[in-house]
Amino acid sequence: QVQLVESGGGLVQAGESLRLSCAASGIIFRINDMGWYRQAPGKQRELVATITSGEFANYVDSVKGRFTISRDNAKNTVYLQMNSLRPEDTAVYYCNIHEYWGQGTLVTVSS
Description:
Structural class: mainly beta
Oligomer: single chain
Helix content: under 10%
Largest sheet: 7 strands, mixed
Number of helices: 0
Order of helices and strands: EEEEEEEEEEE
Number of strands: 11
Low-confidence stretches: none
Mean pLDDT: 96
Distance between the termini: 40 Å
């Protein structure tokens, strides 16, 4: 079955960086588009970034210029490099492909 396992979350101060990873199994990774979503406390889950099989990336406006999504097809892994983090980036970050979700990794940004 499809499994998505996120890692890399943590507690950082505003302005610092984190890199999230999502390792996928049970799928033909290289032909699938991948996405990162996040859900802040009391808010709906929102799309953060997507990357196509052809490595075309798209971002929500609030993270453009700060976050970078990338993929390594040899490792079946998608990454989210997050720079210049802000307190409003605090959320549980989820990896997604089709109807499958990872367990999430918590990112907390203190001011």
